[in-house]
Amino acid sequence: MTETIDNLLERIGRNFQITGQEVKKAGLAALHCSQEQLHGVLIYLKEVEKFDTLTMIGCADWIEDDYFELSYMAYSFTTFFTVMVKIRVSRDGSSVPTVEGIWRQARTFEREIHEMFGVDFPGNTRLKEFFLENWQGMPPMKRDFDTVQFVKDHYKLREEGREGACNVSVERKKRIDAKKLELKKEGE
Amino acid sequence: MLFTIFNSLLAVLLTYSMGMLYYGFYRIGNARIHRRVGPPLWQNVIDNIKLFAKREAPGHGIMFHLGPVIMTAGTITSMLFVPFLKDSAWLQGFSSYGNLILLIYLMVVGPLGNALAVGVSGVPFGVMGVTRGLTRLIGLEVPFFLSVALLMSGSGTISISEIMMAQDSFSNWNMMAHPAAFIVSLFSFVGMMGASPFDVVGAPVEVYSGPQAEFGGKYLGFLAAQRVMFSMVKLILWVDLFLGGATNVFILMAKSFALFFFYFIVGAAFPRFKTEQAVDFMLKLPLIIGIGAVLVRFWSL
Amino acid sequence: MDNLNKKDKAQLKELKSPMAVVDWAVNWFRKQSIFMLAYGTGCGAIEIPPTVTARYDAERFGVRGAATPRQADVIVLSGYLAVKTLKRVIRTYEQMQEPKYVIALGSCPINGGMYWDSYNTIKQLDRYLPVDVTVAGCMPRPEAVLEGFMALKDKIQRGEAEGARDYRDNIEKYKNNQKEIFGDKMLPGYTCDWYFSDGGSF
Amino acid sequence: MKIDIKGIWGALSSLKYLFQPPGTLRYPDVKKEAADGYRGFHDNDLSKCIGCGMCEDICMNLAIDMVKPKSEAYLNAKNGSGLIPRLDYGRCCWCSLCTDVCPVNSLKLTKNYVYVSEDMNRFIYTPGEEKLGKREKETVK
Lengths: 188, 301, 202, 141
Hints:
The complex is a heterotetramer. Chain A has five helices and five strands. The relative contact order of chain A is 0.10. Chain A is 34% helix and 22% strand. The longest helix of chain A is centred in the last third of the chain and has 20 residues, at 168-187. Chain A has a domain at 5-132: 2-Layer Sandwich (Beta Polymerase, domain 2). By secondary structure, chain B is mainly alpha-helical. Chain B has 13 helices and no strands. Chain B is globular, with a radius of gyration of 19 Å. By secondary structure, chain D is α+β, with helices and mostly antiparallel strands. Chain D contains three helices and six strands; from the N terminus they run H-E-H-E-E-H-E-E-E. Chain D has a three-stranded antiparallel sheet with strand order 2-3-6. At the B-C interface, helix 2 of B face helix 2 of C. Strand 5 of chain C pairs antiparallel with strand 5 (116-117) of chain D.
């Protein structure tokens, strides 16, 4: 029997509580689970289903519904399937135990997410600053981070030579009013 | 005495201008092989003068300062023990007081000064370059010594002047009389000149210009001038030993340019060896030919 | 010498004192030999290879690459500079030997470019380093880069390419501007201490 | 020990380029026309510009300001707001959105792309009204 991704998802669903699953395209499936189930699912994927590598950990900020969605993408070199395991964590003070013990490269992905979104990963051995040096305040990739305001506060934009910018609609209104006044005078 | 001093200054001037000219040709030729136009012929002189005109240069104490001085001194000393011309009082330096064995020792002074200076500068790339350079030297010296030994036993003398004098006609040139020695020496010649298969020591993309990493301004100017002069000394030595010497400057230039052209062809066409590959190569083909030639030589004695 | 073109000859005739001629000659040598340290900070790194290789061949003008900052005359900053990059660039610049020049390519070093609202790139390079020549474009083509080198040469010949002197004289201003973005994580002292003292040890 | 004859001979074949003319474009003497559709500096046909400000609205880098021209003579009769666009080349990324959105096709990209200045404050100009860098000696080449 040839292995299909539906069989795989069925086997996972038999062993774990999966809250939602979907096959995005051939060889790529996404499944949602709770944070408590995460490590079980990932260990199952690695040890039983032979998913050799973790290609990345993604993080999406769903600010309207007030949660971060973390996607762990595991890839298998035997079946060439990619499985995204998605969990939801709260946006403030969230912490997810590290998966460094399962795949070592998770260390770097978690380090980046920690820096860019502020998610804490207890147990990660290298959770220090990564791209940003000496960063204080809100992590920059959160959607409520106001980058324009940050730039105005921290950097100086070149204003010299850019004076005298006018608002088009205001100016147009002025000209129309002036024209009307002129016409009125002519009428009189 | 005055004549000797004047002669020595003339030798320095001649090697400097010849070297700059040759290396200008080298840059243009390389550019043409890359299908570029290339810099003007005198670009090396301009670079050198500019380096001396830089306002500052970093210092790392007295040894760092002395390194380029030792190298230049080593170069000029070895230059003075190489006779440029035969049957002439001009451009002889102190060659009547020295011989080939002394010269072999003097030629190592430069790299040693370099190693001392780079050591105190503390730049890891520089130290790496020096290590590679000294490793490469092991590979280069063995075939060179073999060919020189063959030559000395063949000519029955260790004086460079006498070896040069003995080559009176084309068939007597040592490259014809001792072809094995000549071929073996060419391998180490290309390596000593720092041409491409053996230039891993100062490769700009691998070790960030190697031993010279920390030298800037006037230090680099000294090193650049030293390098071209030392190259000329080696060219002239090879002309003296194998190509029958020269009776005037024009013949000297013609012969040394022919050798330089060979060096240029090898350098422009062939890719770079790693350090251990270079040593491996040197200890294989040239060594086998050299030992074979030595055995044949002693057999026939 | 075809390098000594009409403009140079006209300038040479106008010089009066012997010292002026010496200065002019030194500047001429400086402008004819430019060792370039191409610091590919952004997208502009891709414009340097066509400039120096067969198609446009910057070596015709005496421009050639240098491997280390100690040997370089000009640092070419091509594109946006992240705060982290700027720190390295400043260290590299401080290691170069006077006289030294800076060429900035593209929009980003001028006023932020398309990264004007990015939290992590600087907006005005000339607040942190003395920039000699700026080339417009996003990115400038190799012709424009060559034109930048020619403008730099003009400036060197006029004797006005003294960015290093400017940096030394206004070190307080530059270091304060750098402190604004680096905060208490400034560069290690030994690179900038040198600028506050009278010079190197030799 | 094996000697790679072909490897030696093949490398030496690169020497033939010594005797061939180089492929370099000698830039300042020989200039090459940019390809069609190349995005160079802006030009604004002021006899057409209606001052609608669409270019300002669409520019995501805020490179365009609408400003009053130096003289009313630059404006045509249809210009509703009396404003014309001013470019900041410290922001522009030549994405060409402003010229695509221009309803009267007055704002265009030319094939000039060489501008060099020693002063970073010289990269702002009003196309149509002045030339880039006109305030000082440099000119568009």
